[in-house]
Amino acid sequence: xxxxxxxxxxxxxxATAIEYGLIAALISVALIAGASTLGDxxxxxxxxxxxxxxxxxxxxx
Length: 61
Description:
By secondary structure, this protein is an all-alpha fold. The chain contains two helices and no strands.
């Protein structure tokens, strides 16, 4: 049993998998945050364009 425990402590494959998982999670969080910010900016831009077009349309009537 002590050999199994010693071998487990020496093994680094589990630690590497956890590190890759944490890196993937951080990248995912960054992508979600960036997409959310981009979405908010696009929404504001389309709202502004819509308002300008409505104003221009009202001026031509």
